[in-house]
Write a structure and sequence with these properties.
The complex is a heterodimer of chains A (396) and B (311). Chain A folds into 2 domains: 7-24 and 31-124, no CATH class; 157-388, MetI-like fold. Helix content of chain A is 71%, strand content 0%. Chain A contains 15 helices and no strands. Chain A has helices at 7-11, 16-21, 38-56, 61-83, 86-125, 139-148, 157-188, 193-206, 210-232, 243-267, 271-279, 284-312, 316-322, 340-349, 358-388. Chain B folds into 2 domains: 9-44; 60-307, Orthogonal Bundle (MetI-like fold). Chain B has helices at residues 10-44, 46-49, 59-98, 101-116, 119-145, 162-186, 190-198, 203-232, 235-240, 258-265, 274-303; strands at 50-51, 56-57. Chain B has a two-stranded antiparallel ribbon with strand order 1-2. Chain B is flat, with a radius of gyration of 25 Å. Classes of the chains: A mainly alpha (396), B mainly alpha (311). At the A-B interface, helix 5, helix 7, helix 8, helix 9 and helix 10 of A face helix 1, helix 3, helix 4, helix 5 and helix 6 of B.
Amino acid sequence: MTQTPTPTSVQSPAGPPQISERTSRRSSLTQNVLPSWLWMALLGAAVVLGAALSALLGFNLATWFIFTAVIYVVSSYIVTRTRVNKRRATDALWMNLIYLAFALAILPLISVIWSVASVGIQGLMAPGFLASDMQGVTGLTDQSSQTEGAPVLGGIRHAMIGSLLITIAATVISVPIGLMTSIYLVEYSRGGPLSRAITFFVDVMTGIPSIVAGLFAGAAMAWFLSVFSGVTGLLSTQRSTLGITAAIALAVLMVPVVVRTTEEILRVVPNELREASYALGVRKWRTILKVVLPTAISGIASGVTLAIARVIGETAPILVTAGFVVNTNWNLFQGWMTALPVYIFRQFQNPTSPNFSDPSEQRAWAAALVLILIVMGLNLFARLIATLFAPKQTGR
Amino acid sequence: MSSSLTQSDKRGVAGDRVFSALTVTAGVIILLTLTFVVLFLAANSRGAVYQEDQGGWIVGAFFDYAYPLVIGTLIASLIALLLAAPVAVGVALYISHYAPPRWSKSIGYVIDLLAAIPSVVYGAWGMSFLGPELIPVYNWLHENLGFIPFFAGDPSQTGRTIFTAGIVLGVMILPIITSVCREIFIQTPKLHEEAALALGATRWEMIKMSVFPFARAGIISGIMLGLGRALGETMAVALVLSPGMLTASLISNGNSTIPAEIALGFPEAPPGSERQAQLIAIGLVLFVITLLVNMTARWIVNRHKEFSGAN
């Protein structure tokens, strides 16, 4: 389909028959090539035909897209097959299918972002959405919002604070463990059985279902509390549903991501730097702390940010470990705590007013919008620090 | 007599020892955590298979409870895989071999955005947008292909079926498979590609002859990793599916998956009860299944490590 337009093809775009009459005047290199405007013509025809066919069935965008795609792929195969040859036709067929796959992958992205933004922006604009929690919001207030047009009350303050605290605690737990492990793998291990076991099981850990991590953290915390209260006689009735339990669950999910990313970064720190430091008589641990880590700090920071972005959207482990409440809880070690994803889930699954669920859905979509913005912001931030503060490649 | 160069520096030696011990400890903590995951889950799920007041071992009862969930999980993941794998390989090929080179990196980022959307948002999207959109499709499938067991049974009037859940899962695992395949497609030796093109192969023939043979192991392991993710995905299924009994029909209400069952049941289960033990036990089953899938995937990747970038 791609070819350089030759003077002849520009002068005579009138269709295949004339081209074949002038074959003698054309170079044999461009002989079997279809005109460059053909695919646009076919696509245009496919769009029109697809619209007509889908109008017969009751017009909607999905059937229009499907008909257009099928007509275009089939017709361009037939045209290439008849005008050029079978091999070119197969090539064109697969190219069209691959472009189609890309379009198919983009569609859900657009659709998700559209459904979140269309309701979410309205909810985000509701006064006090970011500054209030759900205390005092009952089925009655939601009913009056939906039936009488009163403003939608309630917000995500408690959920944002919960997410923030839980994520910070998870980061504090997982980053030292992850970073030290990758230092062990890169600097100390010499490919022994321990390092091979760690590498393999870190890979395996990446695939732990998040809900299993939640179950583990809950069980571990319950066991810890029972032992602890047996020793000191305190906390005997306390349940393991705490913010810190959720933080442990998230840490289990974060550690493998931190190890993988920081390991990769530490491996690309040039060996000359280490050798220069050793040559000056600096000990290994000071070399690591003063030379290797500062060189790799941008990559480490971006790896940690990516790990945070991965766990901040996790719902299941927090749902089974930290529960959900309507008021703001600042204490990780006392009482239940709501996180942003759990808030979204609860507002959809159990609306505040079961018969008048519009206000709940509006709050949930707005919270989803906030969550997407946070995650995408973290991803962008990670890429930004990785590129802005990357160690210089040259300049030695 | 000894010079300052060979004199041992006590403080420095201690620092080295402490630091290396710390790094080893961190690594061991990770291994211990994984062991404890298995131990704690196993210890807490004892109540699901052994109850004094029900006459000891009740493995049969637990099996009756667990197997529909296992099958439901497998059905949803298989639908996701069948839909996502071809599209993901196509997208990866688009990024590595078809897109304009200047844009391919940005296009890769756009696909990565799919992975950045939290699963609960996908669940909400599947529940309130995709499900209702699919109702006419389900009705049509039932009317015209109702003789196939998959499409028998009353079509759901909310669209919240295992098939919808499978589609949502497919969208979620697409970026994972794509990124693994993309990494490995890019690493195809340029000389192989150019040799194929120089012999007169079309672009598709070049891909078929030089890219696919090189990338086969990577594609398989990418698909396995996607499968592992689909098996363990919770929130999307919990929101999309209205759970019910195991049924062969994909388009009526019914079926459930292990993660969704845990997420919906666990907050209501009283601690220490048989119900909670049951939920933890199926969590352990899920853990073992995903562990096997992921270990197989990693094993394939590691076996072909020398010529793959997918790790």
